[in-house]
Amino acid sequence: MISLRDIPECFEGVIPAMMTTCSLEGEPNITEISQVHLVDDQHVALSHQFFNKTQRNVRENPHASVLVLSPRTFEMYRLELRFDHPENEGPLFDEMSARLQVIASHTGMLGVFQLRCADVYDVLSAEKVEGFLLPPDPRVDRPDLAPGRVAAIARELRGLQAISGRVNRASCLEVLLESVLQALDEELGFRHSMVLLPDGRGRLVATASHGYGSGGVGAEVPLGEGLIGTVAARRRPMRVAGVGAELRYWRTIRAELEHAGSAPSAPEIPLPGLPDAQAQLALPLLVGDRLVGVVALESRTAMAFDAWTETFLNILANQIALGIDRASSADADESEPIPIAPGPAPSAVRAPRKRVFQLFRNDDCIFVDGEYLIRNIPAKILWKLLRANAESGRTEFSNRELRLDDSLGLPELRDNLESRLILLRKRLEEKCPDVQIRPVRRGRFELQVSCAVDLRESESA
Amino acid sequence: MASLDPALVEFLSSGVVLGCASRDARLVPRSVWPVGLRVEPGGEEITVFLPVATAAEVVANLRDNRRIALVATAPVDHRAVQVKGQVLEIRPASDEERSETDRYRACLARTVDPLGVPRAVLLRVLHWPAHAVRFRVEQLFVQTPGPSAGQPFQGPFRPPEPVRT
């Protein structure tokens, strides 16, 4: 018997499994199942959203047999199972239920189906199906280019060390977030990543991103929605392998419901980030029990993130969380110059253009030249800076004066001012490079305006 | 006895993933990956091909009690049907039938390649020699995930709709 821990990739839901049971009358039954969940080395679990023949059979004859395929080697394994018990509460049930809802939410079916129960099975035996595949032929089969396990672990440890060093050396929150995401790519090959920070109003805002071009920053995710929102709400890491297969499965259920005339009314919610992601991993950034953010990674490779990846990136997530906490709450020493990469060069010499900033007071939202720029507290901050600049020509400001301004609505404790300024700075870089805010010393920054500014206010759009 | 409508025959003959189930005298189930099937003229019988390399226990069970279940699933959209029946004959697949298993394997390889299972892998599936198991179709069930899964099949078969991948 092989150990289930030797074939963890078979339990990621990338390739569906075949489940066989038998009624007490001796009628065999076979069905495809989207995922077998690995509980431990002796147990697996299956989720049930609908009552079905498999469930009925194992309650009168507990024997079952499952064929699973490895998405890495494509070898087949046979598990002989015996139904043990159903669970409809507890950690295993919650984990499986959350996973179900994450994918359901992306196909507009959040809450349409609840997990009825998780059936737990004893694994009596697990064997490779000998003779399923011919041995690889070097003339036609690609050699396995993956590094050996020891080499991979060595690389991962070196990567952890390098990233941990960057967290430790980061001079401010912005440098910390950007250098960590860059290092995830350079050291570990994770090309698409983002850090989202809570905005204090039940949403997470992408404050740093890598691999998505200029449009990644500013995306918002409500707590509890999708993978990132669920990870934030549950404060537990989650990953989805084979995103494409999962989406196809749920779209079929949706189509079946539509055919039966009972389709859910919610539209599909596009996946954040890559439109063709095949794997996603999100980790909560926690200091104690307090959520300071979420780091989310995506890949176009279905098996990019496995249980091992999740484990070692969790170590890193703890370090990033502590770094964010330190950078966000450290009382600034205003005399220390801050080293930061220069922003985009000012526009070439030409007549200054005019930019129209429009504030809508009912939802604290600013548009620039008719295009959405930013909202909430960062919008209030920007408005304060622009007005001060227009009225008195001021260009230098301090974090402290912002913290003392009650009209901005910053919370007294853990105000996330640093992350709000980063978001504002990046949104300006993307949408209005004629107006920039640049850190000059720790706790102080400069407003750089290279255009004529027209400020307009109205109660609503 | 049940018979298969033309749309269902076409579905079973396309690049669907197959699974074949049996059970022994103690009602312990056992399954195998078939390497093709043929719906016999009239649509009341199916011959399914099981690789000799992996089907020994299943074939022993089928010889013992003749109860068989077969599931066919479209890998692109998970639309699926289960057929249950009584085995009528088990024999070595003939040389003429080898081309049917070759065709099935090629068809499945074309279907799953865009889904991330390389064609070369399907061509490594050991599909010959094979047993030819002919059985009488007795019951049909919807197996597509959703509220109708497990219900008796009411026909006619709804061809798969294009599903975004």
Q: Please trace the helix and strand order of chain A, writing H or E for each element.
A: EEEEHEEHEHHEEEHEHEEHEEEHEHHEEE
Class computed from helices, strands and strand pairing of chain B: alpha+beta
Fraction in beta strands of chain A: 25-35%
| CATH architecture label name of the largest domain in chain A | 2-Layer Sandwich
Beta-strand portion of chain B reads 25-35%
Total count of domains of chain A:
3
CATH class of chain B: Mainly Beta
Shape of chain B: globular
Distance between the termini of chain A: 68 Å
Strand order of the largest sheet of chain A: 2-1-5-6-7-4-3
Structural class of chain A: alpha+beta
Helix content of chain A: 25-40%
The major β-sheet of chain A equals:
7 strands, antiparallel
CATH architectural designation of chain B: Roll
Distance between the termini of chain B: 37 Å
* Range of helix content of chain B: 10-25%
Query: What strand order characterises the main sheet of chain B?
Result: 2-1-5-6-7-4-3
Written account of the structure:
The complex is a heterodimer of chains A (461) and B (165). With 461 residues, chain A is an alpha+beta fold. Chain A has 3 domains: 4-128, Electron Transport, Fmn-binding Protein, Chain A (Pnp Oxidase, Chain A); 149-242 and 278-329, Beta-Lactamase (2-Layer Sandwich); 354-458, Arc Repressor Mutant, subunit A (Orthogonal Bundle). Helix content of chain A is 32%, strand content 29%. Chain A contains 10 helices and 20 strands. Chain A has helices spanning 53-60, 91-106, 149-169, 173-188, 226-234, 243-259, 307-329, 376-392, 399-404, 417-431, and strands spanning 17-22, 28-33, 37-40, 43-48, 63-69, 76-87, 117-128, 192-198, 203-210, 220-222, 238-241, 279-287, 290-299, 354-360, 365-368, 371-375, 396-398, 435-441, 444-449, 452-458. In chain A, the strands form 4 sheets. Chain A has a 7-stranded antiparallel β-sheet with strand order 2-1-5-6-7-4-3. In chain A, helix 3 (149-169) packs parallel to helix 7 (307-329) and helix 8 (376-392) crosses helix 10 (417-431). Chain A is elongated. Chain A starts with 16 loop residues before the first strand and ends with a strand. Chain B has one domain: Roll (Pnp Oxidase, Chain A), CATH 2.30.110. In chain B, 24% of the residues lie in helices and 33% in strands. Chain B contains 4 helices and 7 strands. Chain B has a 7-stranded antiparallel β-sheet. The interface between A and B is large, with 56 and 53 residues.
